[in-house]
Write a structure and sequence with these properties.
The structure is a single chain. The protein starts with a helix and ends in a 10-residue tail after the last helix. 77% of the residues lie in helices and 0% in strands. The protein has 24 helices and no strands. It has 418 residues and is mainly alpha-helical. It is elongated, with a radius of gyration of 29 Å.
Length: 418
Amino acid sequence: MGEEVGGRLRRLRAERGLTQRELAEPHYTAAYVSSVETGARTPSGDALRHFAARLGLDAGELLGVDSPRDAVRLDLDIATTALDFLAGRGSAPKMRRLARAAEQIGRTRQAGLAWLWLARNTPGDTRPRLVAAAEAALGGDIPPYRDLAVALRASVLIGWGEPHHAMHLLRTSLDASLAGHPHPVLLLTLHAFLAEGHLHLGETLPAAHHASEALRLARGSEEILAELTRNQHRLAEFYLAEGRVADAVAAVSVLHDLLHERALRPVLARCLFARAMVRRADDPEGALTDLRASRAAVPDHAVTLELADVSRELGRLDDVAALLTEAAEAIPPDSPHSASLTFQQGSLALARGDLEAAEAGFAHAIDVAALRDARGVLAASVDKAGQLLRDQGRVEEAADLLRRGLLLLGAEEDQPGR
């Protein structure tokens, strides 16, 4: 037992950043703490109570006795580390230690939540393994927890080039949740990832539907959620310090919901983009609001270019110019967005009545779109350039441009005698 307590004491002391002397004082010595940590001595009851008090624990917790308070403390440690991730200073090794610690004491839900946070914040080839670890830990849990891993599994599948499999998983999980476990955060998560998946597939209308559902379930802006999270964290710590374990359990549950909703911020930004794509036809001002909010939440070249397009339609040409100047500085020439940028620049010149610049802009857009295989931009550029030439009475040039556009789009050139 001495060795088990010693290892636990060493781990807990290190996690709290205490030296052996700081843990020992004023009643014991650093040498005594060292002997306990190495298992050479078994601490007395008084020593256990002293160490536990210095660590902010019950003596029973230091002995490894499982208790509701243990679970709350572990939940709060995971939440605190998740807050660090959201602030951009996350410690993956610390979260990994918490996941392992939860597994060792049989707290599979806490282990699964810790693995989920690691998966969200670990790019590259490691991510699928972390998602699998979360799925294994949460596999026997209730759907509101178990199915949180489905969204990340879907994201992995899309990265592997299997978007239809991903969408099937998300839809199945959503149907089951609506039928039996309509937990708000889970519904928000599934709708948001379905919207992103449909966007990936170019399916604008279903993307907008799921985006609207997700945004309806969201509780507010990042600023509001951050304030709610801080208050809830303090409340849970207060209840735990007061020994009100049942209240602490309820407070921690709300805290984790808030944290998971905040983690969806990039996906919800895409939801705003998806809703704006459909909204712009009947409510351009509303689309503008969505696009601005999306861009403020997570900067994205596609959102900036869409915002410029809607602003141009509303006649806000100075705003368009500023957006396109910013985009031109940020978008590399080999980016898939470079074709849309050149088309937008031609459209701005046309809106300002500079026909020469507009013609040059659309011609450049055709070349870039052909190079980047951006067929939608290519077709739009040919159409705009052709209309511009026809309006100036340059019909033969317009016809030549149309033939060139069709060839670039893959049409076969007519051959003599065919």
